[in-house]
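User: quick one, sequence for these tokens?
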């Protein structure tokens, strides 16, 4: 089964963090590191968020506040599955109806920009968040296990598999330490809460 389209950008980032191709190694009938296998690593860290309120970001223009931009709350994490078939991603209006047009999503900036002024109307977000660093640590741990099973060899550069194992375990530890790191929380103090 192919990887979900909304997860492909995160799979590419995971592939880069772990320095893996899509067919680096075959063990039995399993090929490492296909998109499906990396998707499974990401899915092991997945959190699903439903009806999370978006944060209206007013801008003052011509004597009035206008509402085009809405920010994602920080507690949903940094790494998100993008909108696509089977992604679980939805922007919903105050009545819970999913919107399909009239806005753009900037996933890296964690921002939704509407084409028209929304006049401060409430919106919510359904989204899946992932711990990319935890998934990366898991991949590096598996790479270390594969390296540990190899016999030391010297190549043209004098590398040994024990050095590969040491490097892989160091990378796994590095990403374990980064795992769970979140952005600072953004709060508005200018809105009236009732």
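Assistant:
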């Amino acid at each position: 089964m192919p990887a979900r389209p909304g997860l492909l950008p995160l799979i590419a980032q995971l592939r880069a963090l772990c320095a893996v191709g899509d067919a680096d190694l075959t063990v039995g009938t399993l090929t490492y590191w296909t998109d499906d296998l990396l998707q499974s690593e990401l899915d092991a860290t997945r959190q699903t968020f439903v009806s999370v309120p978006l944060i209206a970001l007013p801008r003052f223009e011509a004597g009035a506040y206008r509402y085009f931009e809405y920010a994602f709350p920080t507690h949903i994490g940094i790494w998100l599955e993008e909108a696509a078939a089977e992604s679980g991603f939805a922007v919903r209006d105050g009545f819970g109806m999913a919107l399909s047009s009239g806005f753009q999503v900037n996933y890296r900036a964690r921002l939704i920009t509407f084409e028209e002024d929304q006049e401060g109307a409430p919106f919510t977000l359904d989204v899946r968040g992932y711990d990319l660093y935890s998934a990366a640590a898991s991949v590096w741990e598996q790479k270390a296990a594969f390296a540990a099973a190899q016999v030391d060899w010297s190549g043209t550069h004098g590398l040994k598999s024990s050095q590969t194992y040491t490097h892989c375990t160091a990378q796994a530890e590095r990403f374990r330490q980064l795992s769970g790191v979140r952005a600072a929380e953004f709060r508005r103090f200018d809105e009236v809460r009732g």
